[in-house]
Amino acid sequence: MRKLLIATLSLLVSASAFSQSINIENWTEDIDFYKTNIEQNHIDLYNTISKLEFENEIQEIKSTLHKKSDVEIIIDLMRLTRKIGDGHTAFSLRGIETHLFPIEIYNVEGQWRVIKTTNNHKMLLGKIVTEIDGKSINKIVNEISKVAQYVENEQSEIIRTGEYLMISELLYGLQLTKDEFNADFTFLDNSGEESTVSLNTINSKDYYENTDFKSFEVRIPEIQKPTDSKYDFLWFSPIDNTTGIYIKFESYPSFEEMEKFGESVLKYINENQIKQVVIDLRNNGGGDFFVGTFLAYYLNLADSIDWKSGVYMLTDKVTFSAATSNASQFRQILNAKIVGEPTGSNPTGYQDMGQFALPNSGMIVTYSKRLFRFQDKVTQGVQPDVLIEYDWNSYSKGIDNMMEWVINDIRIK
Predict the structure, then answer these.
(1) Cα–Cα distance between 322 and 296 in angstroms, integer?
(2) Which first-to-last residue range defines the signal peptide (predicted)?
(3) Under 8 Å CB-to-CB from 42, ≥6 apart: which residues?
(4) Are 279 and 310 in contact (CB under 8 A)?
(5) Domain 234-345+381-411 belongs to what topology?
(6) Is 283 left (phi over 0), alpha (psi -120 to 50) or beta?
(7) Residue closest to 321 by CA, chosen among 127, 161, 159, 99
(8) What is the bridge-based pairing of β-strands 386-387 and 337-340?
(9) 187 torsion bin: left (phi>0), alpha (psi -120 to 50), beta (else)
(10) 99-215: what CATH class?
(11) Where in the chain do CATH 2.30.42.10 domains reside?
């Protein structure tokens, strides 16, 4: 919930198929290259879309090239790729410049709230988006959700839709906005008062490198990040007034770094006779799940832990890929109780990403190379043992309601 524009948008640079004109011959070559390579490389391309449907759509896209702009062709290929149906296969926007509206939104309790914005629009923080250029947010969400990439289940669809909804070229290419780089956003505040604000876009390079943002700051008073932590995404700390520790696991280091981290965690647990462990996999976009097993290995060596009911794991809609795999594994090998939301990818499904670039446009296409089965029962995301969703009342006050539940549970043991 705190970092939404992640892997698909974090590496944008200046060259853009959105802003250049690619002729029909080159697009035809690119589309043929796309079809050949995704058929050759994807482990099971036709698991949700039939070969006939896929080929018919390819032909339809090629037959209408003369009627379409580059943006519209890219949108057509995004829509087709989305139908392949797994979270590692995508017609990616990585490597091209886009323009983003200066707000970040998140669906909380069925409403699209502004959770991050530039300083000059800080008065929008917390407001509900209801319309863009006079079109209802529900209509726009419905259209964007059909082209959003890296979607695997209901949870990731919500996250990815929110990310892609702020890309102005997509909104304009889908004829949802009147101007490519400006739109009128209508907001509702908590008192029910409506307001409309004209927002201009920021190019992606400036958005990520040169723009100051204001957002909600969620804190856990009982936990303090150590000042000597090497990483912001991987650290541990005691939980005040308990016999537990909290492990922040938001991204994956190297094998060597995880081994060092695991050793330091084990040493602390043994020296302090720690009984409870909380592993926070929220907002973890994935990496190498084999690295995550190193952490489980070292934790398993600690005899002071309450292995019957003292291991907790936090997940949310932004627990993706390898983090989903580790969540399922840790439930089994650490007897962890999962608290929070279902994960954004599935414990049984297509993973392990490969990629290729189209020869003319340079667009990146990713695909799944492996099929992993971390659960006997197929579910849409790893389902938590204790379902706790983010709620606006807590989040807007800076309260982590999921971790609050865990700490209370530890204290009553």
Answers:
(1) 14
(2) 1-19
(3) 84, 89, 350, 367, 368, 369
(4) no
(5) 2-enoyl-CoA Hydratase; Chain A, domain 1 (3.90.226)
(6) left
(7) 159
(8) parallel
(9) beta
(10) mainly beta
(11) 99-215
CA distance 298 to 337: 18
Contact 155, 343 (CB under 8 A): yes
- Identify which of 154, 135, 133, 134 has the alpha carbon closest to the alpha carbon of residue 145: 154
The number of beta carbons lying within 10 Å of the beta carbon of residue 52 is 9
pLDDT tens over the chain, length 413 residues: 544 433 333 333 334 566 667 799 999 999 999 999 999 999 999 999 999 999 999 999 999 999 999 999 999 999 999 999 999 999 999 878 999 999 999 999 999 999 999 999 999 999 999 999 999 999 999 999 999 999 999 999 999 999 999 999 999 999 999 999 999 999 999 999 999 999 999 999 999 999 999 999 999 999 999 999 999 999 999 999 999 999 999 999 999 999 999 999 999 999 999 999 999 999 999 999 999 999 999 999 999 999 999 999 999 999 999 999 999 999 999 999 999 999 999 999 999 999 999 999 999 999 999 999 999 888 999 999 999 999 999 999 999 999 999 999 999 97
pTM of the model: 0.92
**Owner of token pair 């919500």:** 158
Question: CB pairs under 8 A, 24+ apart, for 178-183?
Answer: 178/133, 180/99, 181/99, 183/101, 183/132, 183/133
Determine what percent of the chain falls in helix, strand and coil, rounding each to the nearest 5. Answer: 35, 25, 40
Please state, in angstroms and as integers, the Cα–Cα distance from residue 60 to each residue in 31, 36, 55, 76, 290, following that order: 11, 16, 9, 10, 42
**Which residue carries 């969540």 as its tokens?**
327
Among residues 289, 287, 305, 115, which one has the least CA distance to residue 215?
115
DSSP 3-state of 401:
helix
- What DSSP designation does 341 have? S
Q: Dihedral of the CA atoms 291, 295, 301, 305 (nearest 10)?
A: -160
Query: What length is written for the chain?
Result: 413
Instruction: Detail the DSSP E strand segments found in 322-407.
Output: 337-340, 348-357, 364-373, 386-387
Please give the structure tokens belonging to residue 149.
Answer: 């990439």
